[in-house]
Amino acid sequence: MCGIAGFNWKDRDVIEKMTGCLAHRGPDDEGRCVDDRVSLGHRRLSIIDTSARGRQPMRFENLVITYNGEVYNFKQLREQLESKGYAFVSDTDTEVVLLSYHLWGAGCVEKFNGMWAFCIYDKDKRTLFLSRDRFGIKPLYYYFDGGRFVFASELKAIRQHDLSLNIDKTGLNSFFYQKYIGGERTVFENCFKLKPAENLLFDLDRKCITKTQYYDLEAHIARAAQTPLAERLQLVAGTLTDAVESRLVADVPVGAFLSGGVDSSLISAVIARGRKDFKTFSIGFTDRSYDEVRHSRQVSQHIETDHRVEYIDIDENLIEHVVGRMDEPFGDASVLPTYLLSKMTRQSVTVSLSGDAGDEVFGGYDSYQAWNIARFIPGAVVAFAKPLVKLLPPSEKKLAAAFKIRKFVDGFGADVNRRHLDWMSTFADTRRRQLLSEHFVGADCLVDTPAGASLLSVQLNDIHNYLAEDILKKVDLASMLNSLEVRVPFLDHRLVAMVLSLPARYRIRYFRTKWLLKKIASNYLPAAIVHRKKRGFTVPISAWIRKSELIRQYITDRSCYTADMLNYDHIQRLMAVHLNIKADNARQLLLVFVFIYWNAQFNPTAH
Predict the structure, then answer these.
(1) Active site positions, annotated
(2) CA distance linking residue 342 with residue 344, whole number of Å
(3) pTM (2 d.p.)
């Protein structure tokens, strides 16, 4: 991928600083476009047409683009453009995006199949046009104070400007609630994310922003549902195969992550049918409770890939390295092994496919099973069981049953979508109020939830929130720190709408998750792999917190609490209970550590 940056005035020195701190996103080349009205910058990770002809910012007549992404149907769009008389000087998809905008205007993004975040400067109309892909695979941040407009792939580039940035209280609550900051908010006031499927037009003369949503997933689901069911079922497998194959197009080596779970195994198996000696990658933990290498090796042997494996331990140097490079607090611990997986993968390839979004699209989470079970259990049974559940001992084992049962019982009876968010939460309202005291903001103000109580509404909840702001952000952070491009076939927009248009029984059937995906996978993989119990990509954070002097130091040292927003005494009680193994507070304490450490490194008001 690449790194993009820009702002609405002339300053060559600052745009160089912005692109300089994005060098990890694009180590192969850099460029800038500066005139009296704007400064634009780019860092390039060369993937398609690696020659100098693909250098950015790229110009065509009155237009200039700085672009981060891949449009997988660019060859088909190029043919359409050539039929309209356009001539090309490169083989890049960047030029296709630029000329598509020249011909079709803002509507061009509706024709793209891929992932992107870009800005197009129109010198004649005196506008900046920004766009982000449908599901938020690629990030795009901006700052606006009524006069100054600054955008970039990462917040750290925006912070190269002399801006007065204060922590946003609502964004902080969002982080402690869900371990990420959702929606358009960021950790700073006046800094925002362009949301998935949004376009933004900035008028350089009037200094005003207009945002529009160009893609409505629910509307496309309803449209797909008009196709006969039998035809949709037949189309899903073919669309999935096409989504995988189109994401293999590159002028650099391509591989795939392979954890041994059904999602990444199916992606790798589809690739392996058409390619020999295809490289796949996985990592394992020395803690056998968390290690899945044997499963990835089993898959690799069956589909005959060139499989690379490394065993890892998470140490304090790694924690400092990754957390210290976060734009804003982010508490998904699996970012650490994802970083190491990306680092290992980058030694062999420049692009990797992943199985991300398989759970959200095809219905793979435990919380979806909980939704199904909750429909049939009388409330009186849950009320009777609640006191007994509190007696269950804490466990550090991966995906412990006690943890799931507690979550199920605590959330039973609430609104379906709120219950789902609380199931996924770290500090639900009661615990977050204790943590943040007067800075507390209730969950109802943090996340917009879809209406309805169906499985589809719960999945849409995840796609708009958890997928966009946690899963995809994690992968972008971890992979881009290693200059690795990751592509996500399960988020081909044609496939997403088609699968979600199917009746719920094709996703959750009794106690079986991802029913349709597993049926497709059975054409590629043995039953033992397809129906193996879901494990996920989690890490032993309880043990880290007990062993790590770094984490204990930041959590227990009062002088580290420079932001004066957290209840120190309450945190010490959480820590003491955890260290005495009377409760497992690892997930909560990890968020506390991440915020304190991040704040010490990056918050300009902390010193």
Answers:
(1) 2
(2) 5
(3) 0.92
